[in-house]
Amino acid sequence: MHRFLLCFPLFCSSYWLTAQTPRPTLEEDTIRLNEVVVTGFASNRRLIETAASVNLLTRRDLQQRFGTPTLVPALNTLPGVRIDERSPGSYRLSIRGSLIRSPFGVRNVKVYYNELPLTDAAGNTPLNALDVRSIGRVEVIKGPSGSLYGAGTGGTVLFSGLAVPAGQSSAEVSALTGSYGLFGNSVTVQTGNDNSAISLSYNHLQGDGYRQHSALVRDVLNLTGSFVVSPKRTVSILGFYSDHNYQTPGGLNPAQYLANPRQSRPATPTIPGSAEQQAGIYQKIGYLGFSHEYRWSERVQNTTVIYGSLTDFANPFITNYEKRPDQGLGGRTVTQVRLLDQVLPTTLTVGAEWQRNFTISRNYGNRRGQPDTLQNEDELRARQSVLFLQTETALPAAFRLTLGLSRNDVRYGFTRFSRRPIIPQERTFTPVWLPRVALLRTFGPNVSVFASVSTGYSAPSGQEVRPSEATFNTTLEPERGINYEAGLRGHILNSHLQFDIAVYQFQLRQTIVRRSTPAGAEFFVNAGRTDQKGLEAMLAYDLAPRPASGQAGFWRVARLWHSLTLADYRFRESQRAGADVSGNRIPGVPSTVAVAGVDAETRLGFYGHVTYQFLNTFPLTDANTFQSDPARILTATVGFRRTLGQRWTLDAYVSGDNLLDQQYSLGYDLNAVANRFYNASARRNYVAGLRVGVKW
């Protein structure tokens, strides 16, 4: 039995399917908006029965609303979620400010792909190795979720591959072209029958970039498969190989940004520029994972996964050249037991996760993009383990109680071989227990409220205990926090109006912050406390008649939606360079983010999407002496999608980004040395694409 979910940015449908049941097609997924089922916290329940802040994106949200095949614009429609792109392919994902002052991609967030851990034992998440054209669904759990997913104070992201319709085979080819040398193509082949489902895809993307020295080339080969071995046993596979490289133009100071935002970081009398040093990221990743699901009985089910990964990473930077091969290994097992059906129906979830990483880091001098003299050769060993237990109990009077608890253990080992004597070092953190309590009350089938208290814990990542300063930090302590949250969600007016609202307060202590040497290398320290308060809301209204009404009008979809994020993040008892910054706003977190959109699709096949995004100003330094510029971003996509005969489908589209032609920075370098905050985003630009599919 397999799950299939259909959704817009917040609301979707779910069906429990056998292998013989045909799955809805992409054309159908916008008109079946009955029940939203989420998999987060192992609940597999309707969203309205889930005591947590959860948002969802479907294949339509990821691949049709915006023209460029990237995760950035779709994730940025979700309240409380922010993904930056400082240069094409350089992503920085934040959930509720979880990236606070972090210089690299994903911090305090756990990411899974088809239930397999994508975030490794050292806290690295190769988000830029994924291609959105191979992703069918994204589920974002906001707030600490350590009671089931381990260390992390921000939240959890669950990626799922493309759904494979049962009883048919299909192939799709696509191509796109756009401004600033953008070009891409894709091939996807799928086949499904009563006992198996296989999807194989190849995706290519390249571009010259808006700024000087910001070219990108990415090739991704992706394989997913699911095989019903017996009525009780299902085996699945996930494998991908990504060859990804992009140039990093570097940050600009305010004067440089105003004079020429397209330039790369220029040279100074003592330090060469980005282009001169050929700064960039060259990354090859191979990932292979297996999943085994066994249903012991109607009451007991277990899913166990194992994975291995290999990474070849090279980073010519302005001041050095790093080469880093990496090996990852891990697994996760989850058992669910339905204990009671009467009186107090209870589901017990128990499991464990274990991960290990082995990394060799070699730092050289950088001579115009070529490694020079060896400076350091280090070995970093990372290990994480999580034991977790959760119960969900249906109480009288339509209440549902969730209790969760996990034990988290993080350890690092470090050896420097380039210096004598060779002395192995260890950094072991005291194992911690993370509880979570949540209570939900439903009011009929359409409205619910919930409240939760959860603890967050985040040990330093591998890039923090061994930063680019090339020291092993034995004094850095984990971040700890507690989150209080309440939410209201539902749908009214015959399900035309849908709403989801949450308020929270997260108190974080031992906050890990970034410091920089005069040469720009980073290191990390603990710096006091932060107080993070927020409100997140999403509203949607369907103008088209509901399918159940029996009306078949001109509009298949006509929908207005709006998401809002309000945040008040401030330092408490915090020092910065000898100055007290207590009470200051935390840099990098806008006080207001508003996103509004219109989705329309006619029964003739014409469709359109318009999205407007506003980001208020926010501080760029802990001292709040510099502020970002407000951003107003308008995007639109129009297209024509049609089924030709019984087998063929055609989808042609044109998309425009930054249609207001604003000069803005999609990713800022916070607390940057020499005030090099700005990474300019592209001005008005366009993409045109074509998809052709056939099924048999």
UniProtKB/TrEMBL annotation:
Localization in the cell: Cell outer membrane
Cell inner membrane in keyword set: no
TM region positions: none
Residue ranges of every copy of the TonB-dependent receptor plug domain listed in the record: 47-156
Gene3D superfamilies documented for this protein: TonB-dependent receptor, beta-barrel domain, TonB-dependent receptor, plug domain
Membrane protein topology class: Multi-pass membrane protein
Pfam families (UniProt xref): Plug, TonB_dep_Rec_b-barrel
Similarity comment text for this entry: Belongs to the TonB-dependent receptor family.
Protein name: TonB-dependent receptor PqqU
Species annotation: Nibrella viscosa
